[in-house]
Amino acid sequence: MNTINIPLDKLFLDPDNYRLRSKPQYVQMPDLTDDKVIGTALQQRTFNLVAGKNNIEIKDLVDSLRSNGFLKVDNILVRELDNDKGYVVIEGNRRLAALKVLQKSYNEDFDIGLLAPTVFDGVEVVKYSYQNPEEYLILMGLRHVSGNKKWDRYNQAKLIAELYNKGLSVVQIANKLGVSNKSVIQQQLDAFFAIEAFINDDMAYDNDTSFNPFDKFMIFIEVLLKTKVKNWLKWDPLRKEFLDKNNLQRFYSWITPSFSISDDEEDGFNDSDLLDPIIINHKEIRLLNEIIDDEESLIRLEETRSITEAIEQNEGFTKKKFSKEIAQAEKILRNIKFGPSLLLEENDRFSLNNIKKIVNRILADES
């Protein structure tokens, strides 16, 4: 690797940047040649994905560059394109996009603060050469999977899956990325294949174009950690897929928005009819695990669209909760320090008598 200065207009955003993989608008391009990389339309599309609407995704960097100038906090890594076309940024795409925003402002005579305009003539970057795609993946993994600049969990898992698909075992991946806990790599790998099936299911979430399936990654992590739910879906660790397709479609319906059904056929539906998913986040999978074997509770879940109500109606969970609270009450009472100096107030005696009555009633119902 060596440091060089490159004019801003010779630096190109990476259309295959891993940060973009979990955006609904991202489309992976097959046979992405260097000529395609520098195409005007593709560069604009990539900029839109990196910068976000009204540049909201890079506003922090734009403000920082205006306030502080260009500080070399982290290296911008680049790969040289064929035939002297320039360089594609493989690490530092947000900073590149922010610089391009400020260059446009400067060219239109807007204030760019403390940022010296000379940076547009030569941005300091580090030229990086790798022999094969695996080496590039390892570099990205060391920075964004096990490093201190972590991607979101889906993008981490996608990189792990790409290494796995190149023939590396879970142990080898963990060793190359410096991850001591091999089970974490296995969890992310399995969850990636599980969510990919969901993402690629055309019928799973076609009701709502704003729905982002990538946001559900942690739900699939939790599903694979909860034995009852995993078994209900019949997870096959070798094929890395859920085998019970009927239950799987049912589960998909719980984690995606759905339209309410009107009794009047002429009503149709509009945006206001769109209902939130029954299961919103991964923590609710822990509750689902308590009732997944009880069909009556699952029907209740679907009727009320509430995991809380389904749990409250589940006899097994209620008994477990009751036992837990009884044990907690016993622990509290046992830890009270009795002695000659303990003088009970009238309200204390009243509360204790009420506890006694409750206990007697419970025991009487049991006999």
What does this structure look like?
- It is a single chain.
- The protein is α/β, with parallel strands linked by helices and 367 residues long.
- It has 2 domains: 128 residues, Conserved hypothetical protein from pyrococcus furiosus pfu- 392566-001, ParB domain (Alpha-Beta Complex), CATH 3.90.1530; 146 residues, no CATH class.
- Helix content is 50%, strand content 8%.
- Strands 1-5-3-4-2 form a 5-stranded mixed sheet, with no helix packed on it. It has a two-stranded antiparallel sheet with strand order 6-7. A two-stranded antiparallel ribbon has the order 8-9.
- The longest helix is centred in the C-terminal third of the chain and has 21 residues.
- The chain is elongated.
- The model has no long low-confidence stretch (mean pLDDT 87).
Question: How do you describe this structure in short?
Answer:
The chain is α/β, with parallel strands linked by helices. It has helices at 34-37, 40-51, 59-68, 93-107, 133-144, 153-165, 170-177, 182-199, 217-225, 227-232, 245-254, 283-291, 295-304, 307-312, 315-334, 346-366; strands spanning 2-6, 11-12, 77-80, 87-91, 123-127, 235-236, 241-242, 258-259, 274-275.
